[in-house]
Every structure is written in C-alpha cells, then in structure tokens.
Amino acid sequence: MSTADLLYSEAEDDLRAAVRSLLTDRCPPAAVISEAESGRAYDVALWRALGAEMGTAGLLVPDKLGGQGATAREAAVVMEELGRAVAPVPYLTSAVLAAATLLGCDTDQEAVARLLGAVAEGRTVGALAVPLSTVAVVPGGGSGAPAATVRADGDSTLSGQVSGVAGAAGADLLLVPATGADGYGLYAVETAETSVTVEPLTSLDLTRPLAAVTLTGAPARRLAGPGRAEAAIGRALLTGAGLLASEQLGVAEWCLTETVRHTKERHQFGRPIGSFQALKHRMAALWLELVSARATARYAADALATDSPDAAVAVAVAQAHCAEVAVHAAEECVQLHGGIGMTWEHPAHLYLKRAKSDQLALGTPGRHRQALAGLVDLPAPTG
Amino acid sequence: MSTTRHRPAVDADELRRRVRELLDAHPPATTDRLDFLRARFDAGLAWVHYPAGLGGLDAPRSLQAVVDAELAAAGAPDNDPRRIGIGLGMAAPTILGFGTDEQRERLLRPLWTGEEVWCQLFSEPGAGSDLAALATRAVRDGDDWVVDGQKVWTSSAHLARWAILIARTDPDQPKHRGISYFICDMTDPGVEVRPLRQITGEAEFNEVFLTGVRIPDSRRLGEIGEGWRVAQTTLMNERVAIGGGRVPREGGMIGLVADTWRERPELRTHDLHQRLLRLWVESEAARLAGERLRQQLAVGQPGPEGSAMKLAFARLNQQISALEVELLGEEGLLYDDWTLRRPELVDFTGREAGYRYLRAKGNSIEGGTSEVLLNIIAERVLGLPPEPRTDKDVPWKDLPR
Fold first, then answer.
1. How far, in Å, CA of A141 to CA of A143, rounded?
2. pLDDT digit string (tens) for B133-186?
3. Under a CB-based contact definition with an 8 Å cutoff, are residues A116 and A109 in contact?
4. DSSP label of A213
5. DSSP 8-state assignment for residue A46
6. Quick one: which of A170, A176, B88, B91 is 20 to 30 A from A36 by CA?
C-alpha cells in the first residue's frame, strides 16, 4: 500500500487536457441545462465525440478486446473532468459499470467479447441493471453482488423489475442479474425488444436520470453463472464506486473554483465579499477537503488499476470521504453565491443535484464506513 | 509539469558509495557518537542538498532518504532531529540563506550534530499571530546592538546555546519594515529563561526576558530593517518541516484509539463507533494527502499542501484524543500526573489520553494558528483578496497598542 502512485502521469495530464478541451467546447453549463430540459436520456453527439471518437469508452478494456488498454487511473481522470462539467453522458454507467461487468465474465466467450467490444468502441451503450444506490462492498468485507429482483425462466427469458437504474434510459444493452433454476446469473438483454420497458423517472440529478426497467419474458442470453456473475458484478460495483470518487472530486473542484471566482468579483459593503474572513475560511476549509479528497481518489484509482489487495479499503475510504466533500462543496457553492445560487439559470444547482445523488450512488458514506469496520477490524458493539 | 529534469551532480549510487566510505572509516560500533556525526557532516552526508563544505554535496533534497536509509541499516547513530528540530527546521535554512561565510562555518556543524541546541525568539506576549507587531527593541551602540524585551512560547530555551531573534530596530518605520534579525547567544548576560507551565501541567515552553543583552553586529542575519523578509524564510521552512514525514496506516493518533477499541470491547458504544469510523476515514485521507505531498516533493513539484497537512493534523489530533477520553469512560475522568516536568520532547504517544487531549489543543495554535493558516491558504492559494489593513503604512510607534 505504500508504493501507490498518487500523482498524475504525463499521459494522464494529456488525456485530461483533451477531455477538458472537448467539454469546454461542447458542454458548457448552458448546454447542460438545455440538454437536461430536452427530455433526452443523454447528449448523444457529445457521447459520440467523447466515447467513440476520443476512445474513452474503452479505456478499461484491453486492446485485444477492442478497447484502449488503459486502467482505472486514466478512467479516473476522465471521471474528474466529467464531474467538473456535470456532463450528461453515460460514461459511468456504460464505460465503467457495464464494461467492468463484462470484463468480469469469461471474455473467451464469443458473446461476451462481442458485447464488450461494442461497448468499448462506444457503438453500444450498456447499463448494469441494478439500482444506482447499490453498495459495492458488503459489510464484513469483500465485494458482493446485490440480490436479483429478476427471474430467469426456462432457457433464457427474463421477467421482473429493477428500480432506479442509472443509464438504462438510452441504453442499447442491459446487463441483468437474475435468478433461475440454475441459480444466480448475469444476462444480456437488448432494450429494443418489445418485452423490455424502460420508463424514465423524474430524478433529483437531471444529468444522470434514473429509469425503472420492466422485463416481461424478455429474450436474454446468459453471460455468467453463479459465482462468476456475482464476482463480476461485485468487482464492477467496486470499480464504479472507486471511480465515482474522482467524479465527486471534479464536482467539488468546480464548485470551489466558481465560488472563489464569484466572491472575488461580487462586491457588498464596499469590498469584494471574498475578502471577508468568515467567507475566506470556509473556502480555505473546502480547499483542505479537496487536497485529501484528491489523495483518496487517486489512491482508489491506483489500487483498482493495480488490482491491489487493499482495493476494497481504498474504495471505501474514497467513497466515505469524497461523497461528503462533494456535497459540502456544492452546498457552500449555492450558499456563497447568494440569491443567484438559487436560480435555474446558474449552474450551481446542477452540481448540487449531482453531488447529492452521487452521495447515495453505489453506497452512501455511512454504508462505506460500515464496510470499513469489517475490513479494518473496528467492529461494532455487540447488542 | 516539467518534462526535463536536471541531472543531479551527485546521484543515489554516488551517495551510497560515499556512505560506505564513511562507514569503513568510522565503524559505528566502535566510533564515539559525536565523532561519527562530525565525520558524517564533514563527508557531506548530513543534509545532502546543502553546499559542499557545509554538510552537503549540492545533491537533490529527495536523495537524503537514500543516505538516511543506508545509515540506519548500518546502525549508525542519528542526530535526533526531534530534539534539535528548531535548529534544523528554522535556524539552519535561514543561516544558509542569509548568513555570512563565517556564520555558516561556525554555526551549522554543531547545529546539525546537536552539540548546540537552538531556540527561536519570535513570539511575544503582544505579538503572536500578528508577529510583526513585536516590541522587543534592539538599539545600536557602536559595534553592538543592545536588546530589551520579552519573548514567550520558547521551546528548548532552557537547553539552547543559540537563538534566532527578531527585534525592532526602527520604530519610525511601519511595523514590517523596522525589524532586524539576529543570532542571540543564550549564555550572554541579560538573558533570563523562566519555565512557562501550561495546560498539561508540564513546562515545555519558556518565557525569555532580555535585559540589556549585547549582540555584536556581526551576528545580524540580513540587512538592517530586512528582518521580516528573513523571518519569512524561517517560517516557511518551519511549515515544510511540520508537513513532511511518511507514516503507515494508523500511524498517528488514530492507531492508539483503534487499538483500545479492538482490545476493550466492553467500552464500545454505537455512537462512539460512528465517530471512530469517521475519524479513521479522515485520518487515512490525511495520511494519503501527506503521502501525495511527499511524492510531489520527490519529483520536484512542491505544492502549497504543507499548510493543509498542519491544519488537518491539528484538527484530527484534537478530535481523536477527545474521542479517546470519552471511550475510556471511568478512566477518562482521571489524569496520569500533574507534576511539573520539563520535557525535552513533546511525547504524544507515550502518555495517556487525557494528556493527549490537552496537549493537542496547542496543535491549532503553535507554528501559526489554524485561523492564520486558513487566511494564508485563502489569499495565497485561492487568490482571495486580503482584508483591509489599517496598520499598513503607519509607523510602528504610532500604532495603537
């Protein structure tokens, strides 16, 4: 655990610059607001440019399987930038959660390899059909898969419902955990089938909307059986939670930067409000939180990239910490912007909504601390 | 980020070779401790980034770790940097930066070996966070300066041979411009050190009374009236020193309370469990931030995160030690010993929770209060505008006191 590289490599800096430049051009705050009001599940043109043309959709996937052969470290940098822009693209849900789930299956299977290649090239948008609030790490340590709410009937049809799935609206491919006669398994379902209903829900986070998935005898292909399916989903959820910390870092970073900018320009009582110590200390305190959030997010990304035995602890620490930092930064951003922070036109609300939703996504800080109790031997009182 | 790095004049292999030479010539098992330390200094292996002839080899600072590791493995004596922390962390870089050749040659070697302990005469009863408000006067008299005033919070003054001192040499100037920087001989007549007992019952610190102390002008550092600028070097190095160091997981105060938690299940409550887990996460986050800072320094990208570390550890130490007192229940109502002691070192882990709780209160005051550090971060890192100053261009003698 002492050898982890917590800095950014030059390649990572280059990747960041490319992603930031694209997002600056194509995803300014005003565009995010109008996209959120459009009713579309995500910004299709932006995702084509970012995921397919720039190749970020395949960062986690090896070259020979159609991806870029990078690691969680590079994906984390992309997540930071997407957080800074609250970009409405299915990166977390498709390029991270769906890709990592498929990577956990037997990639020698033609069906798995084909789906993975399509997701990695950004041709197919995938989603893991579990509630976004699912925690990656089970209390007591290790990573676990959620119980299936979908039933597998006979050979390969699925029936049942999954609520609160992020990235399902607009997805082409659903990866569905289901239980049948053969036990727990992971199934691939095409959303184009008429027996698949994806009903968008009105979500707190406008930029990462949730949907309810209903399957009524939907044709499905089993990708992994008991054991393998659970491990693949558990690992994907752990990867998602670890990388979400970098998104939270990006959200917090934007909030602090904009708050500093605003309080330097906004004059009240005859001077910039940023010169008042009561406000300066709050912004300096946020900066301190960001310093440690960056360290935990980098550590989690590195632990995932190197498949470190400490990955579960690293992710739980990063999630418990960064989720709170992002919410705090977004709340301070709204407050220190005063009235303008409450308006629909100002983007602060997009960040608050993303930060608060991210706090619940893939396990709340409390659930991650509970997991840590088992991982680092700080047991709860008995009775 | 820079892509080209200067090739160091002395690399790690060269340093390892020099360490072996030193060890061959002065086997630690049979060499007197001070003789070894002096030989190490003369070999340029004391602080490798210092100039040749002054204990260093002009090597990159990051290579010091190589030397330290090799010497530790060989069982060589160390110079106990904790005890001589003020000399190493504050006096040495200032002497190096502003001293004359004579001062450097006379002072740095016994400073590094620990033969001469240093203290700092900066803070005053009326000038703590507003350090530039200091009132200790130094008046020129021929080749000497005559110093009168009172300093406070002086660690190690009762052990020190030398002090770095800032004093007002021109009261007609605004407060930052009328200060000069001196080296004070603590054995001189007129220097009186009195223990200052504190909240823990110990007297770690001292008050120092200066009455007609004569300091030769040759022991001035920097120009007359430039003392504030010189002091900035000292203070910056102090904060770097506080931020350094590599710790394992649970290496700080959190490890003590975590062990108590594991060993004494009868003390556990749900409320304490929630708080312990939060503090465990924050401690790990602070540890990783410290590690990240260390990695940045190692590749030559120092950041402003050093002051972040001091703030984080001050807050964590206070919260963790407070939790530990509560965890101990009945025992938390007791204290180990109120006897007046004069420790040479602050012992954070050797004494019990009540002591740590009280001592940690100083962490957010000493070395720059947390409030002042937050201002520094806000202004220098975030670029926020300063508060309006009413004392800026006013001669010090006309300021309200």
1. 7
2. 999 999 999 999 999 999 999 988 999 999 999 999 999 999 999 999 999 999
3. no
4. E
5. H
6. A176
Mutate which of B277, B295, B370 to disrupt the A interface (most A C-beta within 10 Å)? B277
Rounded Cα distance between A80 and B332, Å, is 44
- With residues binned 3-state (H G I as helix, E B as strand, rest as coil), the percentages for chain A, rounded to 5, are 55, 15, 30
Among the listed residues B107, B87, B110, the one whose alpha carbon sits nearest the alpha carbon of residue B99: B107
Separation CA A358–CA A255 (nearest Å): 15
Closest-CA residue in chain B for A370? B277
Which residue in A280, A283, A296 is closest to B288 by CB distance? A296
Would you call A100 exposed, middle or buried from its count of C-beta atoms within 10 A (0-12, 13-18, 19+)?
buried
Helix count and strand count (H, E) for chain B: 12, 8
Structure tokens at A324: 């709170």
Instruction: State the residue for tokens 């917590």.
Output: A6
Give catalytic residue positions of B: 238
| Structure tokens, B54 | 């002054």
As given in the structure block, the two tokens for residue A246 are 């970098």
Model confidence, pTM: 0.91
Tell me the pairing of strands A150-153 and A157-166.
antiparallel
Give the HSE-up count for residue A64: Cα atoms under 13 Å, Cβ half-sphere. Answer: 2
Percentage of residues of chain A with pLDDT beyond 70? 98
Q: Is B77 left (phi over 0), alpha (psi -120 to 50) or beta?
A: beta
